[in-house]
Design brief:
- The protein starts with a helix and ends with a helix.
- The chain has one domain: Four Helix Bundle (Hemerythrin (Met), subunit A).
- It has five helices and no strands.
- Helix 1 (about 5-30) runs antiparallel to helix 3, helix 3 packs antiparallel against helix 4 and helix 3 packs parallel to helix 5.
- By secondary structure, the protein is an all-alpha fold.
- The chain has helices at about 5-30, 40-45, 50-75, 80-105, 105-130.
């Protein structure tokens, strides 16, 4: 197994992406310091760009466990690191493109990027099955 630092960076970036979209949601929604008393209620009542950014944030958290599990299992089961990194980087790129499409309200393209990001994680798990099979 080569250096795991690249894998750790992938996981870190994937874990920080929801916070980027949370920041966008709050900024676009006009978040004020007093809204910090109940930020989830504030975000739940936003519309337009702020609501879409909040949806990206929520979906980013939803896809995160599968991504982390697939990357760690692939690394543990010694899937070649270049393959893990390729799928990991692709996942992050697709998630960023997904978020951008969500923000500008391009639903069809957004869904395509969502599926592509999901396929990155699923592909890594299928490689693990192949190696252990």
């Amino acid at each position: 197994m080569q250096s795991i630092s690249g894998i750790v960076y992938l996981i870190l970036i994937a874990c920080l992406l929801p916070y980027v979209f949370s920041f966008i949601a709050r900024k676009a929604g006009g978040f004020k310091i007093q809204d910090n008393q109940n930020p989830r209620d504030f975000l739940a009542h936003t519309t337009g760009l702020a609501a879409r950014a909040n949806a990206v944030q929520q979906n980013s958290y939803e896809t995160l466990p599968l991504f982390i599990a697939s990357v760690l299992l692939a690394e543990y089961m010694v899937v070649p690191q270049v393959v893990v990194m390729t799928f990991g980087i692709a996942y992050i790129v697709f998630r960023i493109l997904y978020g951008i499409c969500y923000l500008i309200n391009w639903a069809t393209l957004r869904s395509i990027f969502w599926v592509l990001s999901l396929l990155c994680s699923v592909s890594l798990l299928l490689l693990v099955i192949k190696i252990t099979g």
